[in-house]
């Protein structure tokens, strides 16, 4: 007689018999639990952001649509859908003033390039001095520099104009560029100081042991590591200088020396008929460099601000 192994299947317990099978309604309730509410909340947030973004971008879209409409219907059409297509606004606006609009774009480019170079050189050197050097009255000088951020530009415009007028710089680009060579933008100095303070001093000490001085440490060690801060300074300087209307209006009187914001003002006649279509068309043209600069440098802009401790 041979022994055989019989598989044993335990009988279900009473608790297992009493446990009901999950129903379809319970499964649906679980799907509408905290996870479901989170998805609905996220959807509502994104919908609110889309609506807010649409409200913010609507004036730009309206200006773009108005640049393709005849003058007589621009302010009678609040919508952005085009019934007519008036491309002549761009060709007329390009040659409507005493000089082609390319002249004003070139003037703005010259001023912007000079201001960018001035801010990069002067503000980086001033920031290195405040962050790494030790000298008398360092803290009071830094506090005074920060106080100039709260000083309105209109307070100093009169003495500056008198000074530049006496040296014969009115109606030139020098009053718009030279102040940038003197680290007058305290915001960029502070931004770079915060960035340099985040660089370990051990690198400075190692370079000093190898015989490097401050000029070599700044040029070969600190400056290459400041690329995010320098890129942020470049983008902000480009946008602020390109859109600067007040300074150019004060110092530039020759129409051939006008920058883009002052040239756009010439399309509006306070006593006669204004060329609104040409104005909007050239405004779109003037916005393209700013849009491209922000699109290209957005990554550096976010990284530069995030790594300088500015919240």
TrEMBL record:
Could you name the domain of life of the organism this protein comes from? Answer: Bacteria
Domain ABC transmembrane type-1, first and last residues per copy: 105-297
- Transmembrane ranges, per UniProt, are 47-65, 104-130, 142-162, 174-196, 217-242, 276-296
Q: What is this protein called?
A: Carbohydrate ABC transporter permease
Q: Where in the cell is it found?
A: Cell membrane
Keyword annotations of the record: Cell membrane, Membrane, Transmembrane, Transmembrane helix, Transport
The record's listing under InterPro entries reads:
MetI-like, MetI-like_sf
């Amino acid at each position: 007689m041979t022994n055989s192994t019989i598989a044993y299947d335990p009988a279900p317990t009473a608790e297992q018999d009493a446990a009901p099978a999950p129903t379809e309604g319970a499964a649906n309730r679980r799907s509408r639990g905290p996870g479901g509410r989170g998805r609905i909340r996220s959807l509502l947030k994104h919908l609110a952001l889309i609506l807010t973004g649409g409200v913010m971008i609507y004036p730009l879209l309206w200006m773009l649509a108005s640049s393709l409409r005849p003058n007589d219907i621009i302010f009678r059409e609040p919508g952005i859908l085009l019934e007519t297509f008036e491309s002549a606004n761009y060709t007329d606006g390009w040659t409507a003033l005493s000089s082609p609009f390319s002249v004003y774009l070139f003037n703005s480019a010259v001023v912007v390039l000079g201001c960018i170079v001035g801010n990069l050189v002067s503000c980086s050197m001033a920031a290195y001095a405040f962050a790494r050097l030790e000298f008398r009255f360092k803290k009071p000088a830094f506090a005074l520099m920060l106080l100039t951020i709260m000083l309105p530009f209109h307070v100093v415009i009169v003495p500056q104009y008198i000074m530049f007028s006496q040296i014969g710089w009115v109606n030139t680009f020098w009053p718009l560029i030279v102040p940038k060579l003197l680290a007058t933008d305290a915001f960029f100095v502070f931004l770079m100081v915060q960035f340099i303070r985040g660089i370990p001093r051990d690198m400075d000490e190692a370079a000093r042991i190898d015989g490097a001085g401050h000029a070599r440490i700044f040029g070969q060690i600190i400056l290459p590591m400041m690329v995010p801060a320098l890129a942020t300074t470049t983008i902000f300087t480009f946008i602020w200088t390109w859109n600067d209307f007040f300074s150019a209006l004060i110092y530039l009187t020759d129409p051939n020396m006008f920058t883009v914001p002052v040239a756009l003002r010439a399309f509006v006649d306070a006593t006669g008929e204004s060329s609104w279509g040409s104005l909007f068309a050239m405004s779109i043209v003037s916005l393209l460099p700013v849009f491209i600069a922000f699109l290209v440098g957005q990554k550096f802009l976010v990284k530069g601000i995030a790594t300088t401790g500015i919240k």
